[in-house]
Amino acid sequence: MAHQLVDKWVEALVAARATSARCGPPTDRPSTRDEAYQIQAGVARRVGPVGGFKTARKGDAPPIMAPIFAAGIVPTGAQVDVSDMLGIELEIGFEIVEDCPANLGSLPVSELGKLLLPVAVIELVDTRVQGPFAGDEIVKLTDNQINAGLVVGAAATDWSGSDFGKVNARLQAGEDIILDAQASVPGGSALETFASFARQIGMHCGGLKRGQIVITGSLHPLVYYPKGTLVEGWIDGIGAVSVTLGVSRYQAK
């Protein structure tokens, strides 16, 4: 039964991505993280390649993880597809700039800086699911934690390898100032978030590879903005990132 549920969700999510229309989900929803990760992996085999991952720590629970497909990763200044509204989050990301050693998951945080380069990113957020399950936390995880893409901005030019716990940051969408203050990094440590993720991921969705970007959680609450909005972000010590929310992503119902 569990195998059938996984297959049905994989088919539904692959179809949603292919047709740019939100899917009416199967009758049953996944109920565990293991099922969610099986579905993520099944979709990745059909839709990939994977260009990065999103992760976040909440309390003592294992960090969540979700692939970000390479096709949805764009450089700063890009215009991205959107039908009506799209979620945005300013985050600290890490680009993997060296080949990952076999013992990546056991490296101390102090050693990770040799493999990584901090980058300012804007995560784009949207669901591919419609109906009563769309707001369910496990369903969100199943749907790649509702990742809809990633905008990659400036990389730190003189990073010493030090951690990020609190950062001065700014995010503006149109005329609205969403963030202009010192912000706490989710979990209190961007490098520890990466390290926790590296200990967990194994070969999920192909594992971690040079050139991928791992994002570590939003510096502010998730907000949604309509097409036509210019979004500009900046993180002290890293740099700037911007995106214009553009044209139609989803077909009219």
Overview of the structural elements:
By secondary structure, this protein is α+β, with helices and mostly antiparallel strands. The chain has 5 helices and 13 strands. Helix 1 packs across helix 2. Strand 8 and strand 9 form a beta hairpin. The strands form 2 sheets. Strands 1, 2, 3, 5, 6, 7, 10 and 11 form an 8-stranded mixed sheet that branches. The chain has a single domain, classed as Fumarylacetoacetase-like, C-terminal domain (Fumarylacetoacetate hydrolase, domain 2, Alpha-Beta Complex). Helix content is 22%, strand content 36%.
List the helices and strands and how they pair.
Layout: H1 2-19, H2 33-47, E1 50-56, E2 64-69, E3 73-75, E4 78-80, E5 85-96, H3 109-112, E6 116-125, H4 137-142, E7 147-155, E8 166-173, E9 176-184, H5 190-201, E10 213-218, E11 223-226, E12 230-235, E13 239-245
Parallel strand pairs: 1-10, 3-7, 4-13
Antiparallel strand pairs: 1-2, 5-6, 5-10, 5-11, 6-7, 8-9, 8-12, 12-13
Helix pairs in contact: 1-2
Could you provide a short overview of the structure?
InterPro entries: Fumarylacetoacetase_C_sf, Hydratase-Decarb/MhpD_sf. One of its GO terms (cellular component) is cytoplasm. This protein is 22% helix and 36% strand.
